[in-house]
Design brief:
The chain is of the alpha/beta class. It has helices at about 10-20, 65-90, 90-120, 125-135, 140-150, 165-180, 210-225, 240-250, 265-270, 295-300, 315-325, 345-355, 380-385; strands at about 1-10, 25-35, 45-50, 195-205, 230-235, 255-260, 275-280, 305-310, 335-340, 360-365, 375. It has three domains: about 1-90, no CATH class; about 105-180, no CATH class; about 195-385, P-loop containing nucleotide triphosphate hydrolases (Rossmann fold), CATH 3.40.50.300.
């Protein structure tokens, strides 16, 4: 059997050369596409074929055999074109990555447009301050109020006693004064003379409420030398009080457990020698109004209670607002923030206190009960927001 290779710029021309040289009955063994040898040169197609023993150049072939030969050549050419196109088409993953990148660019452009709109009426000497509070997560409505206040102050040309380099420091100091007045801080949790002070901690599931309460018990018992007890009240979860019970044992403080609102008053009477009784409650869904029924029951028993809400700083602002709105029906004395190690800025702490006129009482970082919480202070919170040392 005579085997030969034929090259041409198209598959059809290569097959025609096979027929011309080996006859119409020649057998095509293989075909392939050859890359261009030089830039600018066309690519070639190579056909390897063998002449049939009975084949003679120019011999007339059976029409069916001829059609089959041409059909196979056309199929191979089509297959080669499809393979070439598939190499140039992006994969589904590449398309998703491109869509994601375009989405990021779109958000960046929108943010820049918002910045321009927000800053359009802000004097140049206040632009840096505006960008700082915006980056810290301060609510746009509060930023607008800040800028109105700072704009009402004497302009840089009127501050004649200060060198030019201190103009920004002047307005920064004025901003701090304004924020100090808007930020509310709760007083220490002290006991009333001859009475047990009862503080009830509320919150949503997963807010870190029980861990925070254990930390507060440690801080008050060790630093303030107060006699503290913890009461766990969860009517639904069996064994939900085990965490605080174990930690109370480690601290050497009393621990009580109740399942119904009616049990709270008798338990308080047992704590006559206790300065502060800290009540850990079950996590409550902020959209379920029925969860407030038992809280209303203990509130209506004539007890001197203070309600505090534990908020996870890692939650979205909308959920923080919804939680405050939910519990405000029974009266909230303060808010405490947990998981501060999970957020990049403290703007939402200022937003919540300013928007709802609620004092901030405690600040907590990790989930570890042994890590001490920190009593909130205006200086500490504003220092974190503005990255400024007092």
């Amino acid at each position: 059997m005579q085997v030969r290779k034929f090259e041409a710029t198209t598959m059809r021309d290569a097959v025609a050369a096979v027929k011309r040289e080996l006859g119409v009955n020649a057998v095509i063994l293989s075909t392939k596409e050859l890359p261009a040898s030089d830039s600018g040169m066309p690519k070639l197609y190579e056909v390897t074929a063998a002449a049939s023993v009975s084949s003679k150049p120019g011999a007339e072939a059976n029409p069916n055999q001829r059609n089959d030969l041409i059909g196979r050549a056309n199929d191979q050419e089509l297959s080669n074109k499809i393979s070439s196109l598939s190499e140039q088409v992006a994969s589904a993953r590449q398309v998703r990555l491109l869509e994601g990148a375009l989405h990021e660019v779109k958000n960046l452009v929108l943010d820049l447009m918002k910045d321009q709109k927000l800053s359009s009426n802000v004097p140049g000497h206040l632009f840096a301050i505006e960008r700082t509070v915006k980056a810290a997560g301060i609510d746009p409505a509060i930023i607008a109020e800040m800028m109105r206040h700072l704009s009402s102050l004497p302009g840089p040309q009127d501050i004649t006693k200060l060198p030019g380099d201190n103009i920004e420091a002047y307005y920064r100091d004025q901003l701090i004064r304004w924020m100090m007045k808007r930020l509310k801080i709760a007083p220490k949790w002290n006991n009333s003379a001859g009475m047990t002070s009862v503080h009830v901690m509320l919150g949503t599931p997963g807010a870190g409420k029980s861990t925070l309460l254990s930390k507060i018990a440690t801080a008050i018992a060790k630093k303030d030398k107060h006699r503290v007890a913890i009461l766990s009240w969860d009517p639904e979860k069996l064994g939900a009080s085990e965490q605080t019970k174990i930690y109370s044992k480690i601290l050497g403080i009393d621990h009580f457990t109740i399942a119904r609102a009616e049990e709270l008053k008798p338990t308080i009477l047992k704590c006559r020698n206790t300065d502060l009784l800290l009540v850990d409650t079950a996590g409550r869904n902020p959209v379920d109004t029925s969860s407030l029924v038992e809280l209303e029951l203990i509130k209506n028993q004539g007890l001197a209670l203070e309600f505090h809400v534990a908020l996870s700083a890692a939650e979205k602002p909308a959920l923080l607002d919804r939680t405050i709105r939910h519990f405000s029906a029974i009266g909230v004395s303060s808010v405490a923030f947990t998981k501060l190690d999970e957020i990049p800025s403290w703007g939402d702490i200022f937003n919540i206190s300013s928007k709802w006129s609620l004092p901030v009482s405690w600040l907590s970082w990790s989930h570890v009960p042994s890590d001490n919480p920190e009593r909130a202070s205006r200086e500490g919170i504003i220092e974190q927001i503005l990255n400024t040392d007092f």
